[in-house]
Each structure stands twice: as structure tokens, then as C-alpha cells.
Design brief:
Layout (H helix, E strand, L loop, with lengths): L1 E7 L4 E8 L2 E5 L6 H10 L2 E6 L11 H8 L2 E4 L10 E2 L5 E4 L2 E7 L8 E6 L5 E7 L14 H4 L3 H16 L7 E4 L17 E2 H7 L8 H9 L9 H10 L4 H8 L2 E2 L1 H11 L2 E4 L3 H4 L8 E2 L6 H9 L6 E4 L5 H10 L5 E5 L3 H7 L8 E2 L1 H7 L6 E4 L3 H6 L6 E2 L5 H4 L9 E4 L4 H12 L5 E4 L2 H5 L12 H4 L3
Parallel strand pairs: 3-4, 4-5, 5-6, 10-11, 13-17, 14-15, 14-16, 16-17, 18-22, 19-20, 19-21, 21-22
Antiparallel strand pairs: 1-2, 2-3, 7-8, 8-9, 9-10, 11-12
Amino acid sequence: MKVEQIYTGCLAQGAYYISSEGEAAIIDPLRDTKPYLDRLAHDAVQLKYIFETHFHADFVSGHLDLSHDTGAQIVYGPTAKPGFEAIVAEDNQIFKVGKVSIRVIHTPGHTMESSCFLLTDEEGHEHALFSGDTLFLGDVGRPDLAQKAANLTKEELAGLLYDSLYNKILPLADDIVIYPAHGAGSACGKNMMKETVDTLGNQKRVNYAFNQPSREAFIASVIDGLLPPPAYFGGNVAMNKLGYDHFEKVLGRSLEALSPDEFESKAKLFGALILDTRAIEDFAPAFIPQSVNIGVDGDFAPWAGAMIIDVQQPILIVADPGREEEVITRLGRVGFDHVLGYLGRGFESWLASGKQIDRVERISAEQFAHTVDLGIDLVIDVRKESEFLSEHVEGADNKPLDYINDWIGKLPRDRHFYLHCAGGYRSMIAASILQARGYRNFTDIIGGFSAIAQTNISKTDFVCQSRVSKK
């Protein structure tokens, strides 16, 4: 038996590859399926099943492409209603893969079809639980995503999650290995550990959800502190449930190199968003006007989803030469299939064309410390609330990037302000959006709060983030 966790840090997502005696199963695959196909070929095994723990919201799964390419059957838990051919399993139904077996455990709460998969090894020992978004390490799946589809409140869904965990998961043996669908950084939970594998016994000890005195206390603790989910989640659920184009087809139509004139023409004709994926140091001094910067070397896909929102949005790409396919692939992971092409030869071709460029005004943290008048000047901190409460510049105003569409229209246009995040990545996203919407009256701080904290500027007392929030 072979069990491999295939973890993608950008999405904080874990897929799983299981093989035994010439057969294999894959759990919660990503959309770009080549790594799985390569493993199958290397091991000379046949993919028999593709197990989906639920209809994912934060990424587009690779179940349809894998099934198309291998003939493997797709398996969901009870109550699932996919818009394509799949096995909708019964609770406790067992599937054989070589000499191992996988039992479906229906665990509604995160969503109604949510299920865990219990792996029993060749010796008949219950070895591992692939817990999907039902059980994370240090946390459980948020119960507010499926309210509309289930016609239930988040409190009612949290109650179902309690029943699933306490009646079906808690009684399992302590030595069972827990393989969750997500880790720290995912928006599917609020308090996840940085580790990606643990034992159920340890989770029984350290996971707050397993240590509540009552069902009512569990419900209250699980829904406390939940932030609104990213707006692109609904589009991803629909694609996972109803279907999508094969990813090779998406790549084929998206990988079109465009001249500056063609690029500019398509942007105007289709109302396309210009997405510049270069590093902030390259973007800030020169970029195509109206571009939005989301650097591919950061948490690219989740921020693209959070900022762009509409998976039908036409997109044009500016990328470092040679990285265009990577950018399109990572956009496809979160459902953005309408890339119209990319700027051939990168941004240098735009510069060479003599077309108009824009820039972001920036200063160092030391310059900021010497010039800012705290209490008078406006300082906008776009970090998460928990980061802000942990420590911030005295008098700064917290406006998390996640909610920029809610607060951008309330910013003054006739008063200068300073802008920063933790290290510069998020504030450059905000800066590019601000300038695209006509704001020119601000200055970005290079290095963000990490650099500011090294100056003598007045700051609030430090409080550990784990004490101020579970977000």
C-alpha cells in the first residue's frame, strides 16, 4: 500500500494518492492533473476511483478531467447531486482498491454531502481518515457555506457537524492518521494548524472542536469569529457540481501571445481585466495603466479569486516570460477559465512599443517614520483584523484587503494617505486597484509593517494573534 499527500501551498490544499496491487484511488485532486497521471504511469497502476469529499468552494477539482483521461469512476458521499455521471455512495459503503478498502463515512455539516473516507490496510487495520473539510488539524470546516443550498442556518449546519464529529469520528481509534483537505491559510476554516498530518488521538486532545462541554457550546464556538467567505466560492461550487471544460482545452485557447497592439485592442473590445503577475518590485515602477497586480510568487490563486470574484471575467495576462502557462494553470485551479491571452515577450514589449505606463508612489519605512505625522496623517493598514490587533502603527486605520470593495468608495480623494500591509504583497494589490479606480493621493510603504516595526515609530503593544482572534 502506498499513501501520498500531494500538498499545494498556494491553496493550502491536500490531495491524496493511494495505490495497492496495481490499482489506485485519488482523493480531492486539483484541476491540473498531470502530476497524478505521471504518478499512475510511474507506478504502472490503473486509477479505479476518484473520491470527492464534497463540492469544493475554494478550488476547481480535477475529478472530471481525471475521469475523462483514465476512465476512473467519480465517487461522492450521500445526498450529492452532481450534474454528471458519478457514484453517489451510501453511508458506510466500502470500495476496494487492490488489497485495501475505503469506507465512506457521511459527515454532513460543512456541506450536506460532506463525507470522510476511512482507509483500511491490507492487514485489516483502520489506518487513515481522509477528512476533507469536516475535520482539519486544530479546526473543523466552516458551517456557513452551504446555508442557501441546504435551506438551513449556519447554527443548524453546525449542529449537524457536531453530530458527525462526535458520533462518527470521535469513536474511531486514536492511532488513525488524519489527512485533511486543507491546512493553515485556507479560508475554509479559521484556526488551522501549520502541520498537514496528525493522529486522531492528538486532535482529540488539542482541537477545540473536540473539547466542548455540550452541543450548544460547540455550535457557538464553531460559528464565532467567522469572516464572510470569498465571493468567488459560489462560482467554484457551481463548476465542481455542474462541470467545466477540460483543462487542456482551457490552456490551448489561453496560451496566445499578443503584441502590445493586440493586447490593448482585446482589453478594450472585451472589457478584459489586465492582471499583472510580476513581483511588486518590477510592477511598482512601471505597468500598463488600469492593471491589477497579484504576484504569482505569493498566495496568487486565493487572492485572484478574492479580488476578481467573477469566474466569467475575461482576463489578459502580463507575466515574466516563460511563466505564462503557470499563471494560467493557477488561475484555472480557482475557476478563471476566460484568459484571452498574454503579453508576448512580457512587459518589455510594452515598454518598447512606447505606449503609456503608470507607476505607484512608494517610500521606505524609514522615510515614512520621518515624515508621517501620527494623529494627523491617515495611515491605511490592509492586513487582516487579527494581524492589526496584534500590533499596529498608532492611529492607523484597519481596512483589510479582503473587503476592499466595501471600503474603497469611502476613502478621501482630497487627502493624502499612507498604505501598507505586512510585507508589501497585499498593499500592492490594493494600490493597483486604487489607481485603477482613480485614486492617486496615496503612498505605499516598502516592506510593510515588517519594515515599519524596525523603525522608532510609535506602535501599539504586541499581543499574540492567537490571543486576539481565531480568524
